[in-house]
């Protein structure tokens, strides 16, 4: 594909992610941290986020499947997820975590289950978006181009 | 868990480059990000994902780090506990990281010397604690436990670039303190020459020790402040785990009720230790215990030292800390805060010629501060946050609310006689958080204010600004607070010097104090509660409230640009059901920070 076209596609796509609040300023910060010393910094950090999030989602699922739900534990997991999602700027995931925590506080099982579903949904959404973004970046780099800022 | 160790020698001329930072955070993502950010600042970074490991590292090589940045939400050990340990055993700056927390609270408490038994060390300690939650309470805890600063996640490069100030400030203040002390010192020397510098052996041999010695001098001044004329400037005693254990053992043997410095000293059988050392440590220990007690006390509300039959063995054991850290809302009930304020938050300490760090920071502005701080609840609000991170925290109202929960505890801690205490009565009505929240957009502004705060010379608003404004207690609006902060900050930005963190912290704290009222909630999502009556998937984000709002805020420093992007774009969600537009409406109000600076003047009047 034409390099220029690819680059434009990337810029548009990335912009849309911000517009739709999948990503926020924090993600930009991450990109700014990336340099020659760490050319894959963003991808690495995001990968860490993916790993951590999936682990937390599993924990949450397990915790909410219990007969007697330990809301404190659930809340702790959500809190962690909120923290790591904020680290990469996954705004929608972060927000859904906030709502989730409210239900935890209320010990509202239904609410929590709904939230878990929502958080999971948001997580997978942002994951696929980021993967698509990285793929575009890779294509550009392979074509010998540089990633537009 | 990635651990790099930097055993380089203390900073040299390249300072702040080469600053040795220890970062503790259980979140691998954050750890990696922080490491990268710090490296970009040319700092030497060591990362740790376990608090225990961090403690080990610190204990093994106490002089290997200049500053510690720690998350407060860690599974293996409460970040506050880590702070306590670090404070009791080492003399390192600790910075707390909080996410959208209330900087106000932290600032305030930190500035007051009487905050914690560790204040002595922690004041000069640069341990940064990080947190992702917006609970004021946690921020307060951080400060209480000796955090010299707190950062809110997401942390910006600029904030990290400034952390060296803590270390630097400490040093220069130490020098200043020592110099100012010389006159008195000579007199004391004549009187008690034998008691001077008897712990030289405890100080390391590195360059930093010179700073340490000075700090010790400062610390010793505490003794003086305590009314012990013979405790001149002495080299400070490093209360190691072992030493502290001996101390605790002696205390237990004697019986907490009957304990006295002389008795303890005799029992401890440590030749180089002086009565003053023990007295000073005992005081801190008492405060520490009483704080633990209070925290564990549902009823709370007892001031001063509370006798505990089984005082925690030593801070390192720290099991008690876990409990103590979980302040309950109940504690807030008595609503009276005692602020260890000498008219000014941070400055107060300095006025007394306390630890150099604090002193240096506020000494300048301090002199101007005379305000009837104590009684004036609104006073604290005047405080400005010179800290960048504060700006972040200002945004969270909930943190303000949580602050209240610290009331009783603070009381206990502030019974510390080093600092004049001021009883804050909650005379004002509960902050109308709802109102506050409606003003929440402003917090976001804080983020954008950051750039201005970044200058090292951040100045804390001196007393005058504080006293000028008699913030009305009731009907207090978060918005106005923030405005005030900003305006204050703007006014004093020229003052710079060591002001800054501690002071801003104080300001922050006061602000939160003044704004919080009895409406304490323990959740970091308090705003949500306030603003949303019910949750439904559709309304999930709408109800998020303050915190959500904060999240919505472009978190960059160039808010202007971000605004355009996010403000407009966010409303174009593909899935409106999920994301409420409530937070985004804030983007519709393009504002100029300068406007706020100008406009706040009248808000508190």
- Report the C-alpha radius of gyration of chain A, rounded: 17 Å
Overall pLDDT confidence of chain B = 53
Identify the overall geometry of chain A: elongated
**Residues in helix, % of chain A:** over 70%
What integer is the average pLDDT of chain A? 93
| Sequence stretches where pLDDT stays below 50 over 5 or more residues of chain B | 1-11, 99-125, 191-232, 298-605
Please work out how many helical segments of chain A DSSP would assign: 6
SS elements, strand count of chain B? 8
Q: How does the SSE layout of this entry go?
A:
The complex is a heterodimer of chains A (149) and B (605).
Chain A lengths: L2 H17 L5 H9 L7 H25 L5 H18 L2 H16 L2 H34 L7
Helix pairs in contact in A: 1-6, 3-4, 3-6, 4-5, 5-6
Chain B lengths: L19 E5 L3 H13 L3 E5 L2 H10 L6 E5 L7 H11 L4 E4 L5 H9 L7 H4 L4 E5 L4 H9 L4 E4 L4 H5 L2 H29 L14 H19 L15 H14 L6 H8 L6 H22 L22 H7 L10 E4 L5 H7 L4 H13 L9 H5 L5 H7 L2 H7 L3 H8 L7 E4 L7 H6 L2 H13 L9 H6 L9 H15 L8 H15 L10 H6 L13 H8 L6 H12 L22 H7 L6
Parallel strand pairs in B: 1-2, 1-3, 3-5, 4-6, 5-6
Antiparallel strand pairs in B: 7-8
Helix pairs in contact in B: 2-3, 4-6, 4-14, 4-24, 6-18, 8-9, 8-15, 10-11, 11-12, 12-13, 12-19, 14-15, 17-21, 18-24, 21-23, 23-28
Question: Care to describe what's here?
Answer:
The complex is a heterodimer of chains A (about 150) and B (about 600). Chain A is an all-alpha fold and about 150 residues long. Chain A is built from six helices and no strands. Chain A has helices spanning about 5-20, 25-35, 40-65, 70-90, 90-105, 110-140. With about 600 residues, chain B is mainly α. In chain B, the strands form two sheets. In chain B, strands 2-1-3-5-6-4 form a six-stranded parallel β-sheet, sandwiched between helices. Chain B has a two-stranded antiparallel sheet with strand order 7-8. Chain B is globular, with a radius of gyration of 22 Å. Residues about 1-10, about 100-125, about 190-230 and about 300-605 of chain B have low confidence and may be disordered. Chain B: It comes from Hibiscus sabdariffa (roselle).
